[in-house]
Structure formats: C-alpha cells, structure tokens
C-alpha cells in the first residue's frame, strides 16, 4: 500500500495472475497483491526495460502513455 506504480508500464484489469511477469523481471518490480486483485509494477524498482510486456499471454502489460491510453501518464 502506498507504493507508486511504475511510470513506464502498468498492468490492466485483464491480468489473469499467471505470474510469468514476476518470474521474468530481474528487478523484482512486480507486486502480487491478494486474490482477485491485479498485479502492479512498483515505480521505485522498475527501470522500464519492457521485458515483461512480451511474456504476458493476455497483453495486460501496457506502456503508460501509449496511444489511446494516457490517463495514467502522470507528470
Ligand atoms: S518493465 Fe522490466 S523492470 Fe519493469 S516490471 Fe517489467 S520486466 Fe520488470
Ligand atoms: S504476465 Fe500478464 S497475465 Fe500474467 S501475471 Fe503478469 S500481467 Fe498478469
């Protein structure tokens, strides 16, 4: 709680909690909250490498600020 999410990527609600992104992230930036809740990416830990994007089977990891999806771009 209280951790800011990554300014580079965010995880959408269609995340099926498979955990592939957790396994692949070398920075341990992914956070797996309680059951039924979407995974999150922590701002302090994620350098925005983008590796997790390709491992997601449902395309739930999206670049913040990508076209048509800029509502979480922040600053
Ligand atoms: S973009 Fe890179 S550092 Fe950030 S959560 Fe994905 S794999 Fe980890
Ligand atoms: S790889 Fe995609 S579907 Fe699997 S836990 Fe990560 S964000 Fe969710």
TrEMBL record:
UniProt xrefs under SUPFAM superfamilies: 4Fe-4S ferredoxins (SSF54862)
One Pfam family linked to the record: Fer4_21
Ranges where the 4Fe-4S ferredoxin-type domain occurs: 6-35, 37-66
Top-rank taxon, per record: Bacteria
Protein name: 4Fe-4S dicluster domain-containing protein
């Amino acid at each position: 709680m209280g951790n800011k999410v990554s300014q580079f990527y965010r995880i959408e609600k269609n995340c099926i909690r498979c955990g592939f992104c957790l396994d692949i992230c070398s920075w341990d930036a992914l956070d797996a909250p309680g059951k039924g809740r979407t995974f999150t990416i922590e701002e302090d830990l994620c350098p925005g490498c983008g590796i997790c994007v390709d491992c997601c089977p449902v395309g739930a990891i999206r670049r913040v600020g990508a076209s048509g999806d800029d509502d979480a771009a922040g600053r």
